Amino acid sequence: MKVTVFGIGYVGLVQAAVLAEVGHQVLCVDVNALRVENLKQGIIPIYEPGLTPLVEKHFASGYLNFTTDAAAGVQHGDVQFIAVGTPPDEDGSADLQYVLAVATTIANHMETAKVIIDKSTVPVGTADRVKARIAEVLKARNVVLEFDVVSNPEFLKEGAAVSDCMRPDRIIVGTYDDRPHDLMRELYEPFNRNHDKLIFMDVRSAELTKYAANCMLATKISFMNEMANLAEMLGADIEAVRKGIGSDPRIGYHFIYPGCGYGGSCFPKDVQALIRSSEQLGYTPKILQAVEAVNDKQKYKLPSLVQQHFGNELAGKTIALWGLSFKPNTDDMREASSRVLMETLWQAGAKVQAYDPEAMEETQRIYGVRDDLTLVGTKEAALKGAAALVICTEWQQFRAPDFDLIKAQLQHPVIFDGRNLFEPRRLEARGFTYYAIGRGE
Ligand code: NAD
Ligand code: UGA
């Protein structure tokens, strides 16, 4: 099948690469000319395990190509994916300007029937707006062409995006009628092997399914962070509680890890967008408001612990930091808890000496060169001369460190662990002062 993907970000590029892998002819369109040029040279704009070889292979084989030429893109695909960003507006609602701009572009250039698939995360009612926009432009052009708008939200996780797209656990397809069903089945047939993963529904339900999924996951995390804070005060261990409740299959082990707050480009933005949508309807979404408030506070947990520990002595001290990305296996720093930590420490006059396996270039891009930030090449180098160690991201390589070396390199044997990587008793036996999340026992 001939497929066009508008937007070569996390979602668009990964989706395009896996569609090419199964044999579809994919053309990606982006307004970012540098990104397009880089991709043609084999420079991949994001770090995502397994993505680079897939992109290189299919660019070489001709199944995957990149362009800034929107007209060529519209001409190419029977199917047109919209996979552009939907960042928060000033008031937190989803900014739909990029989605609607692509809808306009498609309508301006289409000469044959098209199926337009919205993969971006968009508020309920957006498919109606896309449909109306395309109809309006076609009318102004004075042409009559058939088109379908489909809502097909994406559920991939960063850091596992390729495998999530190759093996989706469900494929949500929201349509206005049955007309695009066969084409959607054919498009996703290669990913629909063991059991039927396609779930057809109306477009509004498909749009809400995406927000409901992310908000449910964010709710689980904020709930666990609240339990962790209570556990600390009650002298209980949240890690024991986590295992205790996770063993109930109705609760499950996934997404109940307490920590230093959820980040990333999606949970914070999507919880906020659904709050705004609710408010616009005159409805107060109390659970969502609490999920957001608990998370905002949780991000200050590590900086507060550091400030409490060092008190007035913090100014002028250097703090070692392991992990900058919002989660492991990505270089994405959007809404990362490490940013709140660094910014709070800087405000208190402390310096940060940080290491991350993938996100240091991105950190440099965001903060530039500054006296109170040193980025170093290894986790060991981050410790040198630092007053204490803070861990914000649970990269595998941080899980079994050389504790003797940590002790020898740090000025004080103090670890602030935002991801509960270690056993408190073992660290205390080694002479560390160990702060973790919810480990009150
Ligand atoms: P991104 O910011 O990484 O990429 C968006 C791309 O769209 C950019 O390259 C930008 O240049 C391009 N673009 C903007 N306007 C364009 C236009 N008019 N024509 C062509 N290209 C244009 O975004 P992302 O993280 O891939 O997210 C895209 C959407 O998917 C969002 O709605 C997001 O919420 C949703 N989503 C993201 C993830 C994720 O893990 N990142 C997962 C599921 C869903
Ligand atoms: C999330 C969803 O998991 C995807 O299904 C969805 O497609 C995506 O958002 C999206 O809509 O963009 P992602 O943000 O890539 O994916 O990463 P997650 O693995 O969900 O982690 C998000 C944040 O929650 C991270 O900061 C992580 O550290 C935190 N988290 C996760 C916890 O604090 N505890 C947990 O138990 C799980």
Concise description?
By secondary structure, the chain is an alpha/beta fold. It is 44% helix and 14% strand. It has 2 domains: 2-210, NAD(P)-binding Rossmann-like Domain (Rossmann fold, 3-Layer(aba) Sandwich); 299-435, Rossmann fold (3-Layer(aba) Sandwich).
Helices, strands, pairings?
Layout (H helix, E strand, L loop, with lengths): L1 E5 L3 H12 L3 E5 L3 H8 L10 H11 L2 E4 L2 H7 L2 E4 L14 H13 L4 E5 L7 H16 L5 E5 L9 H6 L4 E5 L5 H8 L9 E5 H32 L3 H9 L20 H14 L5 H13 L2 H10 L7 E5 L14 H11 L3 E5 L4 H8 L5 E3 L3 H5 L4 E4 L11 H7 L4 E4 L6 H6 L3 E3 L6
Parallel strand pairs: 1-2, 1-4, 2-3, 4-5, 5-6, 7-8, 9-10, 9-12, 10-11, 12-13, 13-14
Helix pairs in contact: 1-3, 4-5, 5-6, 9-11, 9-12, 11-12
From the helix content, strand content and strand pairing, which structural class follows? Answer: alpha/beta
Q: What is the spatial order of strands in the main beta sheet? A: 3-2-1-4-5-6
- CA distance, first residue to last residue: 58 Å
The number of distinct helices, counting runs of at least 4 residues, comes to 18
Bound molecules: nicotinamide-adenine-dinucleotide, uridine-5'-diphosphate-glucuronic acid
Approximately how much beta-strand content do the residues carry?
A: 5-15%
Number of strands: 14
Biggest sheet layout: 6 strands, parallel
* Second rung of CATH, namely the architecture of the largest domain: 3-Layer(aba) Sandwich
The 3D shape can be described as globular
CATH topology of the largest domain: Rossmann fold
Protein name: UDP-glucose 6-dehydrogenase
Catalytic activity: UDP-alpha-D-glucose + 2 NAD(+) + H2O = UDP-alpha-D-glucuronate + 2 NADH + 3 H(+)
EC number: 1.1.1.22
Family: Belongs to the UDP-glucose/GDP-mannose dehydrogenase family.
